[in-house]
Amino acid sequence: MGLELTRETLRFERFAGRGEEQVTIEGEAALPGSMRDAVTVLSVQAHAHLTDTQAGNAEAGVRGRVYFQVLYTQGDLTRIRTLETRCDFTHTLPLAGTAPGMRLNADVVVQETEGVAGSGRITLRALLNVRLEAFEACERELVAGAAMPDAPGNLQLRTQKIACCIAQTLGQGRTTVREEFDLPQRLGVGDVLNATATASAGELAGGNGRVSVSGVIEVRVLHRPRNSADALVSTVHEMPYELSIDAQLPEGAQPQVIAEVVDVMADSVESDKNRTLRTEAEVRVTLRLCRQKEMEAVEDLYSLDGPALESAAEDIELHTSEQTADVRESVRIQVALGADAPPVGLVLAAFAQPTLTGLTPEGRRLDAEGIMNLTLIYLPQDSDIPYAVHTREPFSMTFPVEAQAGVSGYAYAIETAPGPSTSDRVEIRCVLGLHTVQHGTRRVRVVTDVAQKPAEKSERGFVLVWPKGGETRWDTARRLRVAQESLRPAGKNALLALKR
To answer: pTM value?
Structure first.
């Protein structure tokens, strides 16, 4: 009885490991003015992005850039000034299970910032949280099918569907967008202090090796008030963008579009009736696709007569899916001032840097907990000199995300606005964005080869058998070398089979 095997090569990804580490980045910048001027650092904010990742032996290297935005006073302590600078960094962190050539998913968020001024210079520090996920590209030759042409009824075959996901970057592109906006006189704004931005992707259109991506950049600009006795003014502006990326989009594919603002600048010029705001933002768009593959393979087999079939099997772990979500929600946090803080007269501005400590899936929602690093800038009662309070407050909120155990993600501040206040307490409303990633994995046992060996002698006739603990009907039939349909219940968990 000849056994014919059909073989196929399965190419798949294996989830190799995940790593996370906090990295401290320091930068320095010169302050204008005299070295003898008194300097008070009010706020240090920063955002970061990665420019390159590379897998090594049980480690991974990352490159990136941090952009600092500083509000401070110098000399004239009633006037808020601004300073912006950037700092490149490289870092290597341990990542067990990785090897050169593996694919890496990486992200970086700023958790804390601080600045210290002295002798005409300011030293800046940012605490970054870098997260990495490593995936190994693998391939195995599997037995996809089997047959006995001379005795088709002698072969008992069980097959399984094997589904996996192979992620790839289809392409990446950058574009710079410039826009002008009118700021009416009624806003009472003066010069621009700083600007932040987030980007979102909208429609995709592909063809002839090109993919067109359009979306919106949301720019938030902080302005100095025209009247020094007023609060800082924040305005929001939307800039549409469109770019074309060299990429081949498979028919029917729904790629993941990652849009991030690499850099943003803003300035304003005053005319007779209004002030014109000029903004410029550079956005980077990455197209990624998780290709779903499915094949049928032999899970187990045996023969009813003749030589016994012995299969060589191997357990493999498949990366089956990769799902991402981007949502936003708001939360209100009460900030109580310390006993040594002067009473609040006028709140000027507030800033937030969230750090997640836990994500808990609850059906179609995701509960998040964390610590919010808050900076509150205000004018004390009977004073024109700005005062800053830095505090860490716990927060909890719910996002509309359907996820399972093992979901990971990070939060980032989109908007921070002060609300009602008293002399010793201020409410701050924070709009947070949440980016989540959910990976699916599955361990399967696959047959890689089948050998034939002489069968042991066994008696013919009726056999009464009690299945072993945990043994399936297939296992019992295989052990007896009978067809599953020939097994009959015989009472008290026993089975009766006829061996021909």
So the answer is: 0.86
